[in-house]
Design the sequence.
């Protein structure tokens, strides 16, 4: 039994690692075909992502919104719902944060920042809660409705920053009025990393605790495991669906707030920068485990951070990083199917034999 | 502009013109997705297929001078992505939604990577069939310029309907999509049928990409697709997994996307972005009205409602 446990744990480390190495290998072939030296490219990616404290900060800045956005998929997945509305909730959260930040700009900065965070949490939460409500009360497929809501959110963003919220001085790229500098989220002391990273890590920790260590989380996982059994056991499936969807959306909304209040300073189309769609993949690759999502976000943040250097020092197009991201994700998703199939990690024959014996008796 | 001479009549005319021009990509991706989903799998990655198709078509047309060869290459490029998708989604424990999103990133990455040198040059475009020569009004003429690809799509929709209803292979695909166990018992190879259906569906989506870059808008840029590929999944639900209804749905979506620009051309600029989002709002509303928690949607392939 102990041996088996050890093998399962080793498998959980070995398979993702092997997948990562294999995807680096495929990407290396791709780079070689494109006329770049793969080993130099690996070196550059490592240097740009994790090589120094300076570059690691870049990685962490990109990882912060990914952590929050991935929870928007990871939490409902515990209930058995596949929600891909991260982008929409992020955009709506960012919009709500800017609107709040502009409305009460003269209050003390801490009050403004808190109000912006709360506004984004509520707006994003309600946005995804609508998806959960449609699913539970009308039977509307949550994957499709959340996908549609992404487009609707982006349209609302464009409409508002192009019209009612538009700062007339933003000519080329319609934007809202900027948030006052004193109301912006600052950086962690001594770094260039904004407080969004702390939000992300805390949110992932809370999510993990909530799902794994509370009665609420147990109820949610029960519904996710077998909805009919959960109903017979008297669990309030509708209420759980709405709460989980609200929490999921509020995390993505908070990511939007961190993006506007720490990075962009105003709402415009840069808010819609694919952190939402990448967050979905982070959630799937982390197998919907919030703690694993922190690690996967940092890994992906590193890949995203290396985009510039591939272009500058290897003369590769900026889409190279997109290809790399695609290869890594496809290979890791494929590796999911290998669990329990590799002979090395299978329980030994002796155990099999003893099992057979007990069943015969 | 011609709309000045015909006044407000320009609005419906522009919508009709926009419908004819804008619905073909929707038509191809939704037919491709319909074929895929009938076999019991979802391909959310058609956005990447559309982009790679658009790039391959444009590049081939530029390099060889033949836009029709470009259309063929777009389909082949689509099949390449379809092959990867089909292989991955058939592995145990691999989620087709996640693979779809990864395929969007991979497909668009490949398209942008190889498409960079082709953003500047001008490639020969597909010819149009002029059906409006009887009219003297230029905007009527322009509205009745029809792409041969659109006509091809018009023909494929009923053909696919017939294929599902009346052919042996159509029955195989429906059987695999509705009940893989039963299909297996009939001696059909579920893997092979799904593989072929996904690859053929991606071929169609690739051709939709060729329409984008070689006919309308008719150039290759990284923002050429405005989410038509992602919408395919919603369109197919909207069309209840029926190819002929995919055609109607595509016309509706193409038409509602034309409302915003048409109103803008007569000076109504308010709510431009919201009009552009009208297909999404419309789909959501129709889903809310027609869905019910008590039964599954009519026409849905059985394997889509269960996890397998």
Sequence:
């Amino acid at each position: 039994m102990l041996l088996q446990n050890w093998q399962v744990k080793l498998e959980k480390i070995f398979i993702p690692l092997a997948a990562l190495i294999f995807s680096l290998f495929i990407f290396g072939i791709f780079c070689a075909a494109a006329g770049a030296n793969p080993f130099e490219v690996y070196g550059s990616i490592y240097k740009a992502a994790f090589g120094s404290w300076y570059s690691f900060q870049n990685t962490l800045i990109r990882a912060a919104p990914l952590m929050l956005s991935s929870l928007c998929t990871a939490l409902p997945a515990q209930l058995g719902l596949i929600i891909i509305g991260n982008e929409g909730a992020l955009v709506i959260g960012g919009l709500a944060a800017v609107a709040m930040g502009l409305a009460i700009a003269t209050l003390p900065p801490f009050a403004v920042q808190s109000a912006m965070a709360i506004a984004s949490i509520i707006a994003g939460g309600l946005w995804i809660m609508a998806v959960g409500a449609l699913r539970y009360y009308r039977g509307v497929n949550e994957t499709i409705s959340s996908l549609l809501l992404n487009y609707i959110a982006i349209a609302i963003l464009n409409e508002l920053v192009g019209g009612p919220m538009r700062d007339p001085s933003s000519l080329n790229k319609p934007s809202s009025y900027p948030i006052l500098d004193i109301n912006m989220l600052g950086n962690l002391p001594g770094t260039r990393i904004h407080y969004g990273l702390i939000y992300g890590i805390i949110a992932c920790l809370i999510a993990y605790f909530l799902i794994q260590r509370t009665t609420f989380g147990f109820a949610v996982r029960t519904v996710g495991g077998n909805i009919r059994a959960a109903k017979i056991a008297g669990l309030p499936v509708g209420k759980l669906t709405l709460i989980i969807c609200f929490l999921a959306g509020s995390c993505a909304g908070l990511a939007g707030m961190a993006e506007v209040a720490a990075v962009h300073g105003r709402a415009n189309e840069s808010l819609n920068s694919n952190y939402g769609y990448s967050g979905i993949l982070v959630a799937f690759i982390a197998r919907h485990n919030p703690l694993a999502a922190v690690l996967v976000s940092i890994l992906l943040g590193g890949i995203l951070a290396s985009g510039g250097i591939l272009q500058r020092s290897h003369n590769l197009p900026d889409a190279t990083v997109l290809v790399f991201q695609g290869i890594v994700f496809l290979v890791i998703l494929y590796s999911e199917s290998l669990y329990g199939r590799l002979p090395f990690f299978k329980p030994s024959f002796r155990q099999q034999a003893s099992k057979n014996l007990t069943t015969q008796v | 502009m011609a709309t000045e001479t015909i006044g407000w009549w320009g609005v419906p005319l522009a919508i009709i013109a926009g419908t004819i021009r804008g619905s073909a990509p929707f038509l191809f991706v939704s037919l491709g997705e319909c074929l895929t989903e009938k076999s019991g799998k979802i391909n959310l990655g058609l956005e990447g297929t559309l982009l790679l198709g658009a790039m391959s078509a444009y590049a081939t047309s530029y390099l060889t001078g033949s836009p029709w060869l470009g259309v063929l290459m777009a389909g082949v490029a689509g099949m390449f992505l379809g092959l990867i998708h089909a292989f991955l989604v058939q592995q145990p424990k691999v989620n087709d939604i996640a693979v779809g999103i990864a395929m969007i990133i991979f497909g668009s990455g490949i398209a942008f990577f190889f498409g960079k040198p082709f953003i500047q040059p001008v490639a020969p475009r597909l010819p149009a069939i002029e059906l409006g020569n009887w009219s003297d009004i230029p905007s009527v003429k322009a509205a009745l310029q029809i792409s041969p690809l659109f006509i091809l799509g018009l023909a494929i929709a009923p053909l696919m309907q017939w294929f599902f209803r009346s052919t042996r292979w159509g029955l195989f695909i429906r059987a695999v999509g509705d009940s893989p166990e039963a299909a297996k018992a009939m001696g059909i190879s579920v893997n092979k049928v799904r593989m072929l259906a996904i690859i053929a569906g991606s071929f169609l989506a690739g051709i939709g990409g060729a329409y984008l870059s070689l006919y309308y808008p008719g150039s290759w840029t990284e923002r050429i697709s405005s989410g038509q590929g992602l919408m395919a999944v919603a369109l197919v639900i909207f069309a209840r997994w029926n190819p002929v209804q995919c055609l109607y749905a595509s016309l509706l979506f193409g038409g509602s996307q034309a409302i915003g620009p048409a109103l803008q051309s007569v000076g109504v600029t308010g709510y431009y972005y919201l009009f552009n989002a009208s297909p999404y709002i419309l789909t959501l509303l129709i889903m809310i009205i027609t869905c019910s928690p008590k039964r599954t949607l009519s026409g849905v392939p059985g394997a889509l409602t269960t996890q397998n």
User: Anything to note?
Assistant: Residues 154 and 238 of chain A are 28 Å apart (CA to CA). Chain A touches chain B through 49 residues (CB under 8 Å). The longest helix of chain A spans residues 2-33.
